[in-house]
Amino acid sequence: xxxxxxxKEIDLAIALTEGLxxxxxxxxxxxxxxxxxxxxxxxxxxxTGANSRHTSIDTLNKTNVAISRFGSGSHIxxxxxxxxxxxxxxxxxxxxxSFSALNNFQAMRDAVNSDASDFFMWExxxxxxxxxSGEVKRIGQITPPWPAFMFAAHVDLLQNHVQDLQRALTAIxxxxxLFMEQKENDSVRLVMDTLDYNEEDVRSWxxxxxxxxxxxxVSSRALQVTVSxxxxxxxxxAPGLAPENLVDLQxxxxx
Length: 255
Description:
Elements: H1 2-6, E1 12-16, H2 17-25, E2 31-38, E3 44-49, E4 64-67, H3 73-85, E5 98-101, H4 105-113, E6 119-123, H5 124-133, E7 136-142, E8 149-154, H6 155-160, H7 162-181, H8 183-195, H9 199-208, H10 220-232, H11 249-253
Parallel strand pairs: 4-5, 4-6
Antiparallel strand pairs: 1-8, 2-8, 3-6, 3-7
């Protein structure tokens, strides 16, 4: 997503908070965070192969993780898991995991079933159909302490079309409010038809999701928690960037 921003294939993106923060902190200066889309944190399921020897998180230290790409949420969350489990050390040569970057979800599921990788991490409800079918096995979950998705805009958009950006954020906010207002009927059916999920799972998902009431607002505290957690997990090197260096404040000032 950030690569598409760099190439100017897109002007505005909705992406995982941790990926956006990590990218800017590592020098991706072609975009800024401009708003919050989903305030609720994302729950990541931890999955292994259907016949894997792993039956709990406890045995995952020093194993191979299937990820989509380096720097992606599936990569970053592995370090957050290691931090929460106390597996990180101060020795930079002591790698907690090895990684296989496989580009897509299907390849990650195949990797754990062939024992090429030990586990992968992916959003809970997206993975649930494959848990239900028995294709892969769920052994745990992890929820980071920050909002799931934020908006990021190319710096050219911020410099030359900031009012258009604000109108776009306002329109998206109105659409999401309408979507949630209709969740008892039309929105549930829309998700079922679009993603081929069963009704029970869709209604469970609606209980967990919480869209921002102000899409142009970004919590400085949320960004600080993200930065500090990523530093602690070894994804970023200290001291990292302060929240004001991650966000374009002129967007919020237009509200």
